[in-house]
Design a protein that fits this description.
7-stranded parallel β-sheet, 374 residues, 15 strands, 19% strand, 8-stranded mixed β-sheet
């Protein structure tokens, strides 16, 4: 069966940057090895027609679920195209995909692999053979770097002055798996407890979408929008231990003067340590990275700093990752019937007690009898 897809090309070497500007019905042209779940969900939310990936969407080292999510959402996924395709396609080109062939204005540009649900599952099953080897390497890497990165928990890091956190709850939002759904589920908690809210980089945009302005935004500023950065939150740039901060130049262009924290580890590690050192009573983390697949999808081969940080802050840390899967609102017919029955009790009592209501219901019953000839 011939499957044809038409759309305007939008391309970027960073999928998270492309997601910010691609429009519904367009075709994403990316260079993303092992498409992760967060990237896939972002593309799905934009309602695009297809993804053309220069790299392998699932290389085979571990079972990343991004490709499967895309295909299950009805998005055509053309995989492992020729490397020079990225230079052949210009932003805004009208593309036509016919099965695994990519055309632009009747000119064949490239031939790729049209990934289907069936062959994605086959590839994912094959990755299970590599998991034991991956886990061994991951553990060795974590142990090796734990000794090098121990300063993140034992050294005195110079944190800037922030909104008071002593004896307060602190909510840390990270752009991880299902983080937006988890934030929505936590709405009652946020309204009741009014925690200090820390966004790690791009999670600031999800917080704003949910109606929450973060008190602080921490990260290297590579995935957060200009709108979020200009929203009045305190900005803390996470720099390397040598003091180099790649995100600083972008903020200077926006006219923002941020605080800078030089520390090893990830930005979410720094956010947790900041809350801990500022005297937080409880840290509630959403979307954090906590297992091997999470870290491999981020391109990290170990979790030394995260392991050390959780050792330090674990006593006051609640990881709310995945809470949306644990708790979902589902209205069952039985519950609905019970609510209706409960609501009818006072109505019935009123009809019995009030003579006017009684006469009203009596009149309705008489009309029904006349209509039915009974």
């Amino acid at each position: 069966m011939i499957k044809k897809v038409r759309g305007i090309a939008r391309k970027d070497t960073k999928t998270k940057d492309l997601i910010k500007r691609i429009n519904p019905g367009e075709i994403a042209v990316i260079n993303h090895e092992n498409i992760d779940e967060v990237a896939a969900q972002g593309l799905i939310a934009k309602k695009i027609k297809a993804v053309i990936n220069i790299s392998h969407s699932i290389e085979g080292n571990y079972p990343n679920t991004g490709p499967l999510l895309l295909v299950d959402a009805g998005i055509v996924l053309i995989d492992n195209c020729q490397r020079d395709l990225f230079t052949k396609i210009n932003e805004g080109d009208p593309l036509i995909i016919v099965n695994n062939l990519i055309y632009c204005q009747n000119r064949l540009l490239a031939v790729g692999e049209n990934l289907t649900r069936s062959n994605i599952l086959t590839k994912m099953n094959k990755t299970k053979e590599n998991l034991e080897h991956q886990l061994s390497d991951f553990i060795q890497n974590t142990i090796e770097y734990a000794s090098k990165e121990q300063n993140i928990v034992v050294a005195n890091i110079d944190y800037p002055k922030t909104v008071p956190m002593t004896n307060r709850h602190v909510l840390i939002a990270v752009r991880g798996k299902d983080y937006e759904e988890d934030l929505r589920i936590l709405t009652p908690y946020i309204k009741e407890e009014n925690p200090v809210i820390i966004a790690v980089d791009g999670a600031a945009d999800a917080l704003l979408k949910c109606g929450y302005k973060p008190h602080l935004i921490i990260g290297d500023m590579d995935s957060v929008s200009d709108m979020a950065l200009m929203g009045g939150s305190q900005i803390i740039v996470h720099a390397y231990t040598n003091g180099h901060a790649p995100g600083l130049a972008r903020l200077e262009k926006l006219g923002i003067k941020p605080d800078v924290v030089a520390a090893p580890g990830t930005s979410e590690d720094v956010a947790m340590l900041l809350a801990y050192e500022k005297g937080a009573e409880l840290i509630v983390a959403v979307g954090t990275h906590s297992n091997m697949i999470d870290f491999l999808e981020k391109g990290r081969k170990g979790m030394a700093s995260t392991f050390l940080v959780r050792l330090k802050v674990g006593a006051i840390l609640i990881d709310a990752k995945g809470v949306s899967k644990l708790y979902r609102h589902r209205v069952k017919v039985r519950y609905l019937a019970e609510i209706v029955a409960a609501a009818l009790i006072p109505v019935t009592l009123i009809s019995v007690i009030s003579p006017y209501t009684y006469q009203f219901f009596r009149l309705i019953m008489l009309k029904i009898k006349l209509l039915l000839n009974v």
